[in-house]
Amino acid sequence: MKKEYDFSKGERGKFYRKDAVFNIPIYLEPDIKSFVEKLAEKKNKDVQDVVNSIIKENIKLSKTLSV
Q: Is residue 52 part of a domain?
């Protein structure tokens, strides 16, 4: 690393995008990951789709129970 860096020609906000969308990484425990991967393969779907459907069902159930 240099002792000093020259930012005199830098542009503030050059890469800022107001409407940028970020995907949050989710890390599954090994046993859960294995289960979801097997289920996704069985259903011929992406792991992401299976995880999202499981979470959506859990949300529905939670809403039903909290009423």
A: yes
